[in-house]
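Lab channel / #folding
Pinned by the channel admin:
"Please post every new chain as: sequence first, then the structure tokens as a reply. Keep commentary short and put observations after the output so the thread stays searchable."

First post following the new format, from NK:
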Amino acid sequence: MPNFAFTFLYYNQPATLKVELTLDYVMRLLAHMRRAGHRVCRVPVPDRSEPRQVLVEFLSSGYMQRARAKGVWPLQGLADPWRLHQNVFLDWWLLKRVAVDDGVLRFS
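Reply from TO:
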């Protein structure tokens, strides 16, 4: 059973919007696992050769810039599912309408 879920909040929308979408997705994931008899769900490890970019460009405080310079700033991929969207409508579609078993998660 998944034991950790994380969401990065919207910077231009109420935080509860992203939390609600994430929680709904986690509940759909757990229901899917229960129906299919899965006990384990793993996110695949991204290919290290794929290009990446900084997770959030707009945070410009000094400690954020120092973390980025040290290489400890979180990165994201350029395409789904490794991409963070700051768009509530796109997230709604991806987290509420796209199938949980989309070929990215690994169930066993």
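NK: The chain has a mean pLDDT of 84.
TO: also worth noting, Residues 15-107 form one domain.
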